[in-house]
Write a structure and sequence with these properties.
Layout lengths: L4 H7 L3 H9 L5 H7 L9 H10 L5 H19 L5 E8 L1 E5 L2 E6 L1 E4 L4 E7 L9 H19 L9 H13 L5
Parallel strand pairs: 1-5
Antiparallel strand pairs: 2-3, 4-5
Helix pairs in contact: 4-5, 6-7
Bound molecules: zinc ion (ZN).
């Protein structure tokens, strides 16, 4: 038996949250993460504009300011806690093997601290990373935050995770 729209209003939760509440006991973290392929909030004109501005931004100070604004706006729209963000001038953490970079870290998210860290410089030469790479990393880490705060998931890289990320990017006009 389904719930009527009025019943949803009584609960005061979005449909996706109700879905999570009802499914949580039955399904694994992996299954839930895989099933949800969309973000459940609309993108505002401000978020769209900030995404566009970030695509032509470069240095740490400007990227920090625009990203803070964008992530605050996304948290408002998703009705979740804001995240603390650090855009670092440090080079990407990396490991070399036989003179080649075999591992590089673009950024990370710490769910317990609600904290995102991003390196704005490439691993070896320390050049500013391309806008697309930067925005990819920023939104990737933010979807981990969304998974944690909104969906109550232990956020892992399932195909559902990447689908949510693509949905967010599409709605932000990333592919235009
Ligand atoms: Zn990740």
């Amino acid at each position: 038996m389904g719930l009527s729209p009025n019943a949803l209003m009584v609960f005061g939760e979005s449909p996706i949250m109700l879905y999570m509440i009802f499914q949580k006991k039955k399904k694994s973290n992996y299954e839930l993460s895989n099933e949800i392929v969309k973000i459940d909030f609309p993108i505002s004109g401000l978020a769209y504009k900030l995404g566009k501005k970030l695509m032509s931004s470069k240095d740490e100070e400007i990227r920090q300011r625009l990203s803070d604004e964008l992530l605050d706006e996304l948290a408002d729209l998703a009705k979740i806690d804001i995240v603390n963000l650090k855009i670092s001038k440090a080079k990407q953490y990396h490991k070399k093997y036989k003179g080649k970079v075999v591992l590089r870290q673009y950024g990370y998210y710490k769910p317990d601290k609600k904290y995102i860290y991003i390196n704005n410089r490439t691993a070896v030469r320390g050049q500013i990373i391309a806008p697309k790479t930067f925005l990819d990393t920023l939104l990737h880490e933010w979807v981990h935050h969304y998974d944690h705060c909104k969906l109550g998931l232990d956020s892992i890289h399932t195909s559902g995770f990447y689908a949510r990320l693509t949905d967010l990017k599409t709605k932000l006009g990333y592919y235009e």
